[in-house]
Amino acid sequence: MPETQTKTAAPTKPQLFSKGHGACAGCGSAVAIRSILFNLGPNIVVSLATGCMEVVSTGYPDNCWGVPVVHSLFENAPAVASGVTRALKKRGSNAIPVVIGGDGSTYDIGFGALSGAMERNEDMIYFCYDNEAYENTGIQRSGATPKYAATTTSPKEVGGKSEWKKNVSFIAASHGVPYAATASIAFLSDLKKKIEKAK
After folding, report:
1. Is the dihedral of CA 196, 41, 29, 85 positive or negative?
2. What is the pLDDT of residues 44-56, one digit of tens each?
3. DSSP state of 134
4. Which of 76, 79, 134 is nearest to 103 (CA)?
5. Which of 78, 156, 158, 178 has the greatest number of beta carbons closer than 10 A?
6. How many CB atoms are closer than 10 A to CB 176?
7. How far apart are CA 85 and CA 79, in angstroms?
8. Residue 48: φ, ψ to 5°
9. What's 93-110 look like in SS3?
10. Cα(99)–Cα(77) distance, rounded to whole angstroms?
11. Cα separation, 96 vs 99, whole angstroms
């Protein structure tokens, strides 16, 4: 009779974005956030802009975040994170300030606050999950919506949105930030490398 070999599984890291959120099954934004938190680890403070991920993940009593989260408005998540950065420094904490916002907050409504934070070279990591439209409120066009894409607010007569998608990563780089990148959840190992570099 052959000898049975037993292997011990490697210890796993705790999930910092756990089950119980109300996102759609297979939601790309939920996958991205889970990967972001897994790779950054627990020593972070998140400024979470209003948007679909805020709506589906923070409803009492089902908060699924395993890290401190500050719910901010659409337009001020980077400003909130700037305040968090200063508070952490004053306390002598080495926690990483992180902003997570959708394309509505990043490309449009909160772009002024984001631009200001980039221009001041604020010490934070900013993540945008790009749905390419205001998905949570009815699929309205945003600055992230690609040209010719059909949304509930793009003109049907011209075959969809008539403007090009804003190149926010290029705009971020033009602010002189230390690091700007794009990633896709289709390539999680690439996302992991970029998160490590951003740290």
Report:
1. negative
2. 999 999 999 999 9
3. B
4. 134
5. 78
6. 10
7. 10
8. -105, 115
9. CCCEEEEEEEHHHHHHHC
10. 7
11. 10
According to the model, what pLDDT value does residue 104 have? 93
Per the prediction, the chain carries an average pLDDT of 93
Q: Which residues of 43-76 are buried (b: 16+ CB within 10 A; e: fewer)?
A: ebbbbbbbbbbbebbbeeeeebbebebeebebbb
How many Cβ atoms sit within 10 Å of the Cβ of residue 152? 11
Whole-model pTM? 0.90
Q: Which residues contact 3 (CB under 8 A, 6 or more apart)?
A: none
End-to-end CA distance of the chain: 52
Using CB atoms within 10 A of its CB, is residue 178 exposed (0-12), middle (13-18) or buried (19+)? Answer: exposed
Per-residue pLDDT tens for 81-139? 999 999 999 999 999 999 999 999 999 999 999 999 999 999 999 999 999 999 888 99
- Of the candidates 49, 41, 44, the residue with the CA atom closest to the CA atom of residue 68: 44
Pairing between β-strand 96-102 and β-strand 69-72 as defined by DSSP bridges? unpaired
Q: What is the pLDDT of residues 128-168, one digit of tens each?
A: 999 999 988 899 999 999 999 999 998 888 889 999 999 99
